Amino acid sequence: MTHVLAADPTLADFGKDPLWITIIKAVLLFVFLMLGILFGVWFERKLISRMQNRYGPNRAGKFGLLQSVADGLKMGLKEDLFPRTVDRVLYLLAPVIMVIPAFLAFSIVPFAGMVNLFGVQTPLQLVDLPVAVLFMLAMGAVSVYGVVLAGWSSRSPYALLGGLRSAAQVVSYEIAMGLSFVAIFLFAGTLSTSEIVKAQGETWFVFLLIPSFLIYVICMFGEAARIPFDLPEGEGELVGGFQTEYSSSLKFALIMMGEYLHTFTASGIAVTLFLGGWRAPIPISWWEGANQGYWPVLWFLIKFVLTFSFIIWVRASLPRVRYDQLMSLGWKVLIPVNLAWILLVAGVRSVMLNEESRMIALGVTGVVVIGALAIWMRFDTVNQRRKEAQKAQVEAEFEELSEEPTAGGFPVPPLDLPHYHGVQHKEIPSGTN
């Protein structure tokens, strides 16, 4: 008589697989990510081109499916150049540091529950930890070292400036991203990804914790440096950011692979923590076998592709923001809103778990909400006064310039420029160049 395990794995189900099963799962994850990069690049180029009324890749292979393969082969076979002044060791090591943590971060994403893999009952997830979400954040932080080292080892001011700006951006948005997970930890009672998916058996966290989800979505673009937050690679400002001195060779391909893997990880974490993970959506979940066997892989991939399509849609729709706007949004908006939301969720959770402290929790929650509103009104008033003062200063400067055409010792044209439209020009005789 065979023992049938439950569809929902727990932490106790991990670490019991034979070594060959672990190797097979690692190879399957690697193949999934590599194929995902190839088809993800093609899918992004194709989707954006249709949004812009273009065809996109349509020459290499059927529907241009082999275009990404051709680009990868081209970059892999190109001559590997080294600028004269680079630190060769760190220059080669930086792209590797960007790629490896991105692969490791995806190892905690569950694709399904318990499945039968070559006769062995095992969770369709490479590894799970009691602090799995913190492991993902740590891997994102380690990849920043690759960005900084890529800029510093290039010995170029453009690359160094791009690396520093990228590090400041990622660190700023990692704080807000980590705070957006706190509400999930309070509801799920764990940091394990498999347990968090199990906690969403009745209601997905995207419906219970909408502010946390919206904050995470914004931080997702900032963490992966995607438009509208791709400031480290602003061509008009930084020539290419930290990758300025990397030619179109295998090193450049590794950098692009690392950025795409970070986008995939952000999409996978969004599905796992907020969108129910591998669980089927309603009304498919009403079918008894929807969350058993290999069917959950299909639901996970559908959610994953839709999340990735949303990232592409934002890229095709929004312009790049200024760097000061990017940092102000992270430090002045997302982090304070996150802290207030965490206190509110903690108060509500305390009421749900302990009836004796209901009045105290409600009182603290009320004070937090009133305080947050007061702070927001105060900041709004200060910003309004600052805008009015700046407007008055600009108007005063314009009046001063109109009264003194040579203000500051430099000739300043008058504001009534239409009077100069009738200037007569000398006629050029015919036959002259």
From TrEMBL:
Record has Plastid as a keyword: no
Pfam families in the record: NADHdh (PF00146)
Catalytic activity field: a quinone + NADH + 5 H(+)(in) = a quinol + NAD(+) + 4 H(+)(out)
UniProtKB keywords: Cell membrane, Membrane, NAD, Quinone, Translocase, Transmembrane, Transmembrane helix, Ubiquinone
Subcellular location: Cell membrane; Membrane
Enzyme class label: translocase
Family statement drawn from the similarity comment of this UniProt entry: Belongs to the complex I subunit 1 family.
Protein name: NADH-quinone oxidoreductase subunit H
Organism: Nonomuraea jabiensis
Gene name of the record: nuoH
